[in-house]
Amino acid sequence: MAKIPDLARAGRRRAKLNGMGSSGAPMGATSGQGRQAGGTPRAALADLLAGNRRFVSGQPVHGHDVTAAAAAASGDQQPYAVVLGCIDSRVPLEAIFDQTFGAICVIRTGGHVLDRAVCGSIEYVVGQLGVPLVMVLGHERCGAVEATVEALRTGQRPGGSLAYLVDEIAPAVTEAGIDDPAVRPLAIRRHVRRTVRTLREDDLLAGPVAAGRVAVVGGLYDLATGEVALLDPG
Ligand SMILES: [Zn+2]
């Protein structure tokens, strides 16, 4: 993203953030904090990805500041994005986007599988908090996808509620091709795209998405480098 749009807005809420340079690099110690709900999807995405670049470069602004005092100082929450990711312990979302308290809403389920609680939570964040950006973040070597591949290959569906996760991920694995040697990485990407599509068609999200007020995007986290890459809609 070569140019970050002017972030000034007829603020619905009090501005408290210094902006970002045209390179997308943070300009101040509080960058990433206080970006307001009600902004554009593009600006929100630029902010989120700038945070990931800080994380990747080993220069997080907020990474060190996880004290109770920092939490208390966040005041009212004014998140600018909601990220839906996997439960994988190697992918802590606030950390990999270098976000401070109050900046992003985070939802995590195995394989970022949707259910009504997840959709309702996103509807709330978008509809009530005015958040303009929803990111679905998959990651390499996702255990939930691997478990689904195994279940489909062996024909042994797991018991309990784990079966729900497998059932929800299975279409992506089938689309990728269960016999394809690269079924795991392919299915991970397809599952992200399917999740994005489902959210774009959600009852309460479809309107804002069509109007351009909200964007739902897919991303992939690289466990080796820490980088988040955007996935095209596919
Ligand atoms: Zn995972």
Walk me through this protein's architecture.
The chain has helices spanning 41-56, 68-73, 93-96, 116-129, 143-154, 162-176, 183-200, 206-210, and strands spanning 81-85, 104-108, 133-139, 215-221, 228-231. Helix 5 (143-154) crosses helix 6 and helix 6 packs across helix 7. The two termini are 19 Å apart. Helix 3 (93-96) links the parallel strand 1 (81-85) and strand 2. The protein is an alpha/beta fold. It has a 5-stranded mixed beta sheet with strand order 2-1-3-4-5, with helices on both faces. Bound molecules: zinc ion (ZN). Zinc ion (ZN) binds next to helix 5.
The end-to-end span amounts to: 19 Å
Structural class: alpha/beta
The rough form would be described as: globular
Bound molecules: zinc ion
User: Which strand order do you get reading across the main beta sheet?
Assistant: 2-1-3-4-5
Helix content: 25-40%
Mean pLDDT: 85
Q: What's the Cα radius of gyration?
A: 18 Å
Which residues form runs of ≥5 with pLDDT under 50? 1-34
Tally of helical runs: 8
Regarding quaternary structure, what we see is single chain
Provide the succession of SSEs. HHEHEHEHHHHEE
As a percent range, the share of strand residues is 5-15%
Largest pleated sheet: 5 strands, mixed
Strand element count: 5
Family: Belongs to the beta-class carbonic anhydrase family.
Keywords: Lyase
EC number: 4.2.1.1
Protein name: Carbonic anhydrase
What's the gist of this structure?
This protein is 38% helix and 12% strand.
Show the helix and strand layout:
Elements: H1 41-56, H2 68-73, E1 81-85, H3 93-96, E2 104-108, H4 116-129, E3 133-139, H5 143-154, H6 162-176, H7 183-200, H8 206-210, E4 215-221, E5 228-231
Parallel strand pairs: 1-2, 1-3, 3-4
Antiparallel strand pairs: 4-5
The chain binds zinc ion.
